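Here is one chain, start to finish.
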Amino acid sequence: MTETGLVALGRLTLSRRERMVMVEPRGTGMALYTLRVADEVRAPQFGHAEGDLDAEMVAIAAAIIRQRTGNFDPSTYRDRYQAALQELIEAKMKGLTIKPRPLSTPPPVIDLMAALKRSLAQEPSALEQRAAKSKRAKQMTDRRQPALLLPLAGNRRTKRRLSTEPAATKRSKGA
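Its structure:
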């Protein structure tokens, strides 16, 4: 297939439904893509970018993007469906009775724009969160006993503080 520059078309049943697929060579393996039939494909119905966008919504979207931007670590991703299915299988293998989860009532409908504005007003950005975290780490109190700490002259601030202390707290060279 690679040498001829062709792909293969076929049919595959997924979730009790037959689908058209395309198989394409990729390196030493193959990639399979599901295809849509003609009546499933529609022309996009998007508005034009000129003038159709609400400036307030764009500003909120930009703020959300700034706050949520970070590094992606795929090892933190967890397939919750797969985990729940595995737990169910293990419980059945142990012979435990499986009780269906109670259905929860849906929460009341809220105004999404108002909720987004409240959330943005309360939540600091990722940069502010990192700065606050480092500030908290610096402000952690010294849990050692102050009476046992020896004055060390290492920088200007410490030297000034030592010179203003009463003579009784300073150690003499003979002691």
